[in-house]
Amino acid sequence: MKLYLVTDEELLLGKELFQTVEAAVKGGVTMVQLREKNSSTRDFICKAIRLKEILAPYRVPLLINDRIDVALAADADGVHIGQSDMPYQLVKKLLPAGKIVGLSVETHQQVLEANQLKVDYIAASPVYVTTTKTDTITEWGLEGIRWIKSVSRHPLVGIGRMNKETIPDAFRAGLDSAAVISAIISAPDPEKAASELSALVNPL
């Protein structure tokens, strides 16, 4: 999951969601999270089902942000939850075995608490403050990434201004995966943008 795409329809700049995601996968994206802020439950489920169909031939997992009901209805590969979403213990009870569960961490205490959970990864949110996510507590920065890596037993995803300029240093600091939004979603050529980022997270 080195290159992890998080969708945001407000940042598509006129492009079509499904075409953009498929282009990004062709460029090297290895996991996709469908994040919907304004869709109805019905529309969210329909988008999830369609996206899973598109991703299946590429063997790229689809995660759903926050909504366990949508993940179940669409038989998505997993969910990503934040600290104010459904508690992890309930999520694990509701999801079938083998589904992926990712958890955002925004404080040092949350990182340590996550060590007691069988999540598949934790996401440092945000590595850098970004306009696409404004409800966070602080930014981790590179020192924060190094600290998390030194104490956490989970794979570490970074989200928040992950782009060509920031990804190399963030990976050197310890990231296992970069969750990218606008650097791919808003790019005129999402496949090319994903390919360039893929080269950074999968160096030859």
Which strand order does the major sheet show? 1-2-3-4-5-6-7-8
| Number of separate helices | 9
Major sheet: 8 strands, parallel, barrel
Give the SSE order as H and E letters: EHEHEHEHEHEHEHEHH
Low-confidence stretches: none
Which structural class matches the secondary elements? alpha/beta
Sheet-strand content, in percent, reads 15-25%
Instruction: Tally the beta strands.
Output: 8
Straight-line distance between termini: 17 Å
Estimate the mean pLDDT confidence. Answer: 95
Rg measurement, Å: 16 Å
**Broad shape:** globular
Give helix % range: 25-40%
Question: Could you characterize what this model shows?
Answer:
- The protein has helices spanning 17-27, 41-55, 68-74, 88-94, 108-114, 141-151, 167-173, 182-185, 190-201; strands spanning 3-6, 31-34, 62-65, 78-81, 100-105, 121-124, 156-159, 177-180.
- By secondary structure, it is an alpha/beta fold.
- The two termini are 17 Å apart.
- The relative contact order is 0.18.
- The model has no long low-confidence stretch (mean pLDDT 95).
Features:
204 residues, alpha/beta, eight-stranded parallel β-barrel, 9 helices, 40% helix
Helices and strands in order:
Elements lengths: L2 E4 L10 H11 L3 E4 L6 H15 L6 E4 L2 H7 L3 E4 L6 H7 L5 E6 L2 H7 L6 E4 L16 H11 L4 E4 L7 H7 L3 E4 L1 H4 L4 H12 L3
Parallel strand pairs: 1-2, 1-8, 2-3, 3-4, 4-5, 5-6, 6-7, 7-8
Helix pairs in contact: 1-2, 1-9, 2-3
The gist of it:
The chain contains nine helices and eight strands.
